[in-house]
Amino acid sequence: MCGSDSSTHKILGKRLNRSQGKNPRNKIGITTTVVKCNDCRLIYSNPQPIPNSIQDHYGVPPEDYWNEDYFTVNPEYFKTEIETLKKLYNFKEGDKALDIGAGIGKCMIALTNAGFDTYGFEPSESFQSRAIQKMNINPERLTLNSIENAELPNNYFDFITFGAVLEHLYDPSASINKAMNWLKPGGVMQIEVPSSDWLINKILNAFYKVKGLDYVANISPMHEPFHLYEFSLKSFQKNAKMNNYSILHSEYYVAQTYMPRILDTLLVPYMRFTNTGMQLCVWLRKQ
């Protein structure tokens, strides 16, 4: 994200390719090293898990990933993000939107209902087929493709969204750069990613350290589809200089804590106050 030499990055510890629990030394699995960039605080695995094919990575059936409620379209879905977008961008009815990694199409539905002329692509055969069959997405609007292989017209879209996608891509900077080419000058890109400053990971890492373990909780989940990265706001501030964009707005979502519920009364407000929630959302403008 910042172009720094990975040989200078700090080793944080090891990560299992499964749930680690309190004592990962007693678990059978494959470990990889987790490192952190000293310049932009990007956290990533090195070496990274590489699938034999794209469908090994993305071909997880959505029913295995989500329960049946996930296929219900909540009218509030992506509503806050659309409201934020309309504050940042002079929206006009029929502006063109692109959802990269559209999943089963819920964001495409929300954008269409908000007045956008919406398109998307999805690398998972199973997710794309459910979007068409279960969610009634027009197959001409949602193609089976990955950002690495997609070819779209330059300066075409007013808005592009990467929702929970960038952390799965092997070269996030190149992916942002490619998508920026598709965006009109002055257009807006929204990206939501795991935060490298998440408080819960820091607590769990301290727990492992006290136990004398060289494991860390970062880069979860380490199963298909893999999380490869965690990002800080500084990751995008550095990357903005490389890829010709500015940061319009950023915010952190607390999301789940995965801690005992009694602790949430303290942890949730603290994470909100200190910007140490699980997810980072950034809004970028093409220069």
> Mind telling me which CATH architecture this is?
3-Layer(aba) Sandwich
Radius of gyration: 19 Å
Which percent range describes the beta-strand content? 15-25%
Provide the number of structural domains.
1
Topology-level CATH name: Rossmann fold
Overall SS class: alpha/beta
Helix content: 25-40%
Quote the distance from N terminus to C terminus.
18 Å
Which assembly state applies to the chains in this document?
Answer: single chain
The 3D shape can be described as globular
H/E series: EEEHHHEHEHEEHEHEHEHE
Mean pLDDT: 92
Could you characterize the architecture of this molecule?
The chain is of the alpha/beta class. Helix content is about 30%, strand content about 25%. It has helices at about 55-60, 60-65, 80-90, 105-115, 125-135, 170-180, 200-210, 235-245, 260-275, and strands at about 10-15, 30-35, 45, 95-100, 115-120, 140-145, 155-165, 185-195, 230, 245-255, 280-285. Helix 4 links the parallel strand 4 and strand 5 (about 115-120). The longest helix is centred in the last third of the chain and has 14 residues, at about 260-275.
Descriptive key words:
alpha/beta, 287 residues, Rossmann fold, single chain
Sequence-ordered SSE layout with sheet pairings:
Layout: E1 10-16, E2 31-36, E3 43-45, H1 54-58, H2 62-65, H3 79-88, E4 96-100, H4 106-113, E5 117-122, H5 125-133, E6 142-144, E7 157-163, H6 172-182, E8 183-194, H7 199-210, E9 229-230, H8 233-243, E10 245-253, H9 261-274, E11 279-286
